[in-house]
Amino acid sequence: MPRQPDTGRRNAMREAGLTALEALGMVIMTLAAQTVILGLLDPDSELVWGIFNQVPGGRTGQMILLGLVALVAAVAGGWAHTRRAQDTGRAGGSGDIRSREPA
Questions:
Q1: 62 φ, ψ (degrees, to nearest 5)
Q2: Max CA-CA distance within the chain?
Q3: What sign has the CA pseudo-torsion 89, 90, 91, 95?
Q4: 29 exposure class (CB count in 10 Å sphere: 0-12, 13-18, 19+)
Q5: Residue 2 phi, psi dihedral angles, 5° rounding
Q6: Given pLDDT bands bounded at 50, 70 and 90, which one contains residue 13?
Q7: 96 by DSSP, 3-state: which?
Q8: In this predicted model, what pLDDT tens digit does every residue of 20-60 receive, in sequence order?
């Protein structure tokens, strides 16, 4: 007889992965957005310790790339957050409105 998959463990691992993606997205977005703001306010500062020095377009290209990194991280974190919210809503079902009659 074939072994049945352990759906409880799979769901827990999926939940942990979505939580990690959400947290990583928030951290990367925060750091990239702060660096862009610092670059706008202090033109003499070096962006991200010279990691993006090879980006074409000079300082403008670096800031555009950092803005895109922040945007992608925000979208990934938001996607993970909405996936987690959908899964928790399905599991318990206690948050559903059953009827609209007064109690």
A1: -65, -40
A2: 69
A3: positive
A4: buried
A5: -70, 145
A6: confident
A7: coil
A8: 999 999 999 999 999 999 999 998 888 887 888 899 998 89
Q: What is the pLDDT of residue 70?
A: 96
Q: Token digits for 29?
A: 């977005």
Q: Are 66 and 29 in contact (CB under 8 A)?
A: no
Q: Which residues of 35-65 are buried (b: 16+ CB within 10 A; e: fewer)?
A: bbeebeeeeeeebbeeebeebeeeeeebbeb
- In this predicted structure, the answer to whether residue 84 has a pLDDT above a threshold of 70 is yes
Query: Are 36 and 66 within 8 A, CB to CB?
Result: yes
**Token pair in block for residue 15:** 């939940």
Mean pLDDT of 62-68: 94
For the record, the structure tokens of 34 come out as 């702060």
Which tokens hold the place of 66?
């950092």
